[in-house]
Amino acid sequence: MPLSMHQASAPVFIRTLSNLKHVLQLGEAHATARGFDPTLLVQARLTPDMLPLVRQVQIACDMAMRGCARLASIEPESVADEEVDFAGLYARIDLACANIGAYAADQVDGSEAREIVLKMRNDDELRFSGRDYLLNYVVPNLFFHCTITYAILRQSGVALGKLDFMGKPA
Predict the structure, then answer these.
(1) pTM of structure
(2) What are the residue boundaries of the structural domains of the chain, listed by start?
(3) Alpha-carbon distance 117 to 126, whole Å?
(4) Domain 5-162 superfamily per CATH
């Protein structure tokens, strides 16, 4: 049986965000064990010209939530970027996972050829088929922002390994 659009999106997004939450929990525990304010990690950056950890997590969550919504032909909801600590980031991830988990397979399946149009900040438009949107835009963006979050925490001394990022095999 071929892989469906729902199978290639929602479960992958939820697993990736759940692993991201685990990585963040290890980061918070690291800061607490070493006696420094964990919110310092929330604002940490990989390099000065990259977004801080908090934005990386917000974008990862938004990418997954909006990705599922668009594949289901539903206008994506906006979530205010108000997180300032680990508790807020955990809540954002939980919200994203609940939102993604609410889409039934029949809402997403069959979206391979559905046109997805993204309005960019400069008023340009990006046009995709549903399949290309999922595989060439949403998935790479989700993994990019999760990877940068991981890298920020590793650079900050958090003991993380590949299985923390990927999760244990299902």
Answers:
(1) 0.95
(2) 5-162
(3) 6
(4) dinb family like domain (1.20.120.450)
